[in-house]
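Contributing: when you submit paired examples, paste them exactly as shown. First protein:
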Amino acid sequence: MSKLTVFICLISVITSAQKIDSCRTDIKHNFKLLTEEGLKIDTIIAKISGVYISKDSFLDLDKKWKDRFSCIRFFENGKVYKSCSYRSFPTKQDFEDLSYGTYSEYKVQNGRIVIESYAGWTGFFLEYYTIQKNTIIRIGTSKRKFNKNLQIEPSPTTTSYEFYHLGL
């Protein structure tokens, strides 16, 4: 292997965060939130000038606690990007490369952010986030039904995302 190849590989590792898992990004879903509910976006509540970052810890195979990071990025057209997990704090390059995650739709309703999501083991569902200054906090989920009698199931753990301005 040439010195140039080794140098390029090293620069690539240094300038981007390490990805934790193999993330399925090739799946396209038939989201209905914007179709059913219409575009209800408040970019003061769901800020589009940066990303929201979550940090938590997990126990790896060596039984050592490791940090992991993920992010959520909102767009003014009602689309939202949710990244897969990183082993280190994502770089600006990672925030701009939106290929390591999935897209879905969101709306702002009653001061909360509602994100339509999909998971293979449960199908489509809605996630609910409350907003506190520059932080969004996941408070629960519900089945994907578009009526006023939704039953929100509280999240067993609290996941919060802090806003990080990208200078956009």
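Second protein:
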Amino acid sequence: MTDKLKEFMANHDYVFGHTPTQIEHFMTTSQQGSRPFEFWQHVLQLRALYRSLQEMDLQAEDLYHRKEDASALWPFWTRKKRLRGLARIEHEAVLLSEQRREKLQEVEVHLEIIDRKYSDLKGLPEAEILRGDKDYWTTRLAKQMALGRSAMQLGVSVGDLSAVMTLDEADQKEVLNKMVGALQLHEKVLLPGK
């Protein structure tokens, strides 16, 4: 089974932990409605990714030194233990490399979104972003209340409706049309006599 999995994974070496759509519409839109706050969320995500990459660099350096130590000449009776240690180090290095690739891909997506949507906000001081703090929160709470009411009328959860509202208008319509189609199919299957 392990060989089958290894073969499968060799042909499916995907990079993303989060897709570009997830990053743009769901990970950073908790602040939707205020361009500076949306920009700020991307910057905060980038800061976390940057710190993670710095930590990975330190881990890679540690692995290099551990490998050097394990490869040094030691008494022959420790050979098996050292070989197991080298295998573990190699495995950790592969995992670290995959994690690093994923993080760098996410960084690329965030930077592309910033260049596309928020290039005019680059260099904006945090104090300037926070200047709109009160207005942002009062607007957000008003939207939450309106979403709650709309969700009750539609018979869906607030979370589902909120997630759909993060999409562009055309994508919102597509989701709602697909929902209607799914409901019609479910009615046909669940209530065949109607």
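If you have annotations for the second protein, write them as plain sentences, like these:
The mean pLDDT is 83.
The two ends are 48 Å apart (CA to CA).
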